[in-house]
Amino acid sequence: MADIDIKRMVADLPCPEFDEPAFAPTKPLHQARVAVVTSAALHHPEDNPFDAQDTSFRVLDPNRRDVQLGHWSPNFDRSGFAEDINVVWPIDRLTELAEQGVIGSVANVHLAFAGNQDETMTSIRLDSGPAAAQILKDDEVDVVLLTPV
Amino acid sequence: MLKALFAMLDAAEGPVLETYPEHIDAADTEPLVCSLPPRMDDSLHPAVDEAQALRNAYDRALEKRGNRIGAAREISADDVPAAVAAFVRITEGVDWKEAEIPGNPMRVAQDIRGYYQTAATELAEHTPAAWAGEDWFYEQTETGRLMLAARTALKAAGAPQPLWFYLSPGDRPA
What we know:
The complex is a heterodimer.
Chain A: H1 3-10, E1 33-38, E2 42-43, E3 58-60, E4 68-69, H2 79-83, H3 91-99, E5 105-106, E6 110-112, H4 122-138, E7 143-147
Parallel strand pairs in A: 1-5, 1-6, 1-7
Antiparallel strand pairs in A: 2-4, 3-6
Chain B: H1 2-7, H2 46-53, H3 55-65, H4 80-91, H5 105-123, H6 132-140, H7 142-156, H8 161-165
Helix pairs in contact in B: 2-4, 2-7, 3-5, 4-7, 6-7
């Protein structure tokens, strides 16, 4: 099922509304430290694999390229990722942008969750999400790119 | 794409929501051209024979790219032909509990597909278009067609819905 079909399917689904949506201006991009957070259930081979309804996250090392797509759902097209991990985790592109001075630096930590979550996302909102955010703050990350897969 | 996303940081107030016209459409994409091996052992079911014959391509793909697709998580590559044989038995009317599926059926099915699509990265003559890898597996390979047939058989036999539904993408008819 292509993304255009999925967009049609979910277009009318109700979404949570927040009274005070976050807006956090950051430093200029050429000074900013950038991380990727993906919902593609990526992990390194030695990490614990993701399980169904897994609300935890894995930390990705930007110096490594040996990552696996850990989703169990059959509804993913994995061929593009098999050819080039940057379609999900654009780590080489970020490195190039840092070398060009477009961004300040690439974070030392990148994070992966599994995207197949219950609709409340309670555990992530209250537990693993804040824990993940702390890891990013400890690495002085300014900007996070979310790649929803 | 990254530059478009970073441009959103220039907004003075927000949150900023942007919709872009680009999308990935599965229709009219280039099919995956991926040669399959000829029959090697006529005594085996064609799907089992095919799975065995793809092993060298699978191993070469792992060597080059690693296990990005995440195959061989429930069963090893060594177990794939036997797992395919279990789904052959299901299409022949054997009850799924007696078919000797070597693990969680959904996960075994995912590993079989991952084994094939990993091998395809080594055999294909070009980068596959969106969803072309899935179409190739379910429409061009003996095992892909077998998995769809097994799904249909399980549904017809009254197996629990989660057991048969997740054997293939949800938009494939059962």
